[in-house]
Amino acid sequence: MGVPILGPIHLLQKLRKHDPQIKGAIVAIGDNRVRRTYADQVLESGLELINAIHPSAVVSQTAKIGRNVLVAAGAIVGTEARIADDVIINTGAVVDHECLIGRGAHIGPAAALAGRVEVGEGALIGIGAKVVPCMKIGANAVVGAGAVVIEDVAAGATVAGVPARVIRAEGGRQEA
Q1: Which residues are paired to 52 by β-bridges?
Q2: Buried b / exposed e along 42-66 (16+ C-beta atoms within 10 A)
């Protein structure tokens, strides 16, 4: 059983000196950028990044999962899916066959990605969002809660609605 740490990252070094058997850590902070930054700091401290996969999650034997990945309760990761480092696949989310999830992405609770969806680095798929097969969600894009994505989403864009429409383009421009 792991020991949760709440507080500054330098506490990891203190904990490690106190108990040299501690070899790894997971960073499961919801903010994608903060999670990636802290994960890099954990590696710099000499600890390994480990995964946390809930016992009720289903992960295909053919899925490839990076480091510092959280697969929460009831989540499903399908055949040949590839999950990069520092990813959260939240409660009840579905990442279907042959999906590619980029570093530091977050798949929100009850979100569902059909087969062959590509999610870029740092992207956020909101709670209950649905993405049809073969779509590409760009780096740092945001798919709003409950959205249904039927077209590719550009890097840095925010989409919402059914069907999903751009409400903020990369660089923060509001759409009409």
Answers
A1: 70
A2: beeeebebebebeeebebbeebebe
Partners of 125 in beta bridges: 107, 143
Burial of 67 (0-12, 13-18, 19+ CB in 10 A): middle
Q: How confident is the model at residue 116 (pLDDT cuts 50, 70, 90)?
A: very high
Torsion on CA atoms 58, 36, 157, 100, rounded to nearest 10 = -40
Cα–Cα distance, 75 to 70 (Å, whole number): 10
- Domains along the chain with CATH numbers: 11-49 (no CATH), 52-168 (2.160.10.10)
- The separation between CA 70 and the C-alpha centre of its own chain, rounded to angstroms, equals 8
**pLDDT bracket for residue 86 (50, 70, 90):** very high
The alpha carbon of residue 175 and the mean position of all alpha carbons in its chain are separated, in whole angstroms, by 26
Q: Please, what is the end-to-end C-alpha distance for the chain in angstroms?
A: 51
Q: Tell me the catalytic residues.
A: 97
CA-CA distance, 108 to 6, in Å (whole number)?
Answer: 22
- Residue with the bigger pLDDT between 84 and 8: it is 84
Cis peptide before 109 (omega within 30 of 0): no
Structure tokens of 81?
A: 């899916």
pTM of this structure: 0.89
